[in-house]
Amino acid sequence: MLDRVESDHIEMAGRSTRPASLLDAMRERTRTLHVTAERTGIVAELLRGRGTRRAYALLLRNLLPVYEALESELLRHEGTRAVGLIVRPELHRSAAIRADLAQLDVAGLPVLPEAIAYVSAIQEAGAGAGHPLLAHAYTRYLGDLSGGQIIKKILARSLDLRPESLSFYEFPDIADLQRFKNDYRNALEQAGAAMVEHGAVVEEAALAFMLNIALSEALQAAAGFGA
């Protein structure tokens, strides 16, 4: 979710008010939500270095079904003209999350209703042609590749976590994260060009951010942080 920080600034001068591409449209629609996501909930606590081992494990436990749903739906559309362009197994996070949870070994972690709602939204996004899945991949994976790397460093320092507990933020099958991010953005652009209408995907991107914010705030409360 904390993505696009260094190379995604858009020069609007000379452009029409209508975004020229799917990626531009999603950026514009989610700009304010992106800022909110960084400044609220458990994400804000982690960025401030106020996380705890249990809070991190709780975050992972609730993200696991989200990624399982996203990866399942993406693979189901692997052969399609638009969504198939952004199916990249090297991005999949489910196995890494399970490995981290095993290392952290924190018992009694609940799956919150907000995570279940998030899963349901992803499954609905995968119905039919599955084009709204582009928005969920954009929100989660570009965030993991960018802002997630910042969170990883903070967690390693503030919680004294070893790399074996931070697999979620590691991408061993990607040699150059910046080049991969650029390639993935290009794939999203190509997927957008293969579609007739962008509106539903753009609104799904806003929904994805709102679902992330709701989950982050619920996790903040469940982990015992004051709002």
From TrEMBL:
Family matches, as Gene3D superfamilies: Heme oxygenase-like
Ranges annotated as spanning the membrane: none
Source organism, top-level taxon: Bacteria
Keywords: Heme, Iron, Metal-binding
Residues spanning the signal sequence: none
PANTHER family: HEME OXYGENASE
The protein's name in its UniProt record: Biliverdin-producing heme oxygenase
Organism the protein comes from: Bradyrhizobium ontarionense
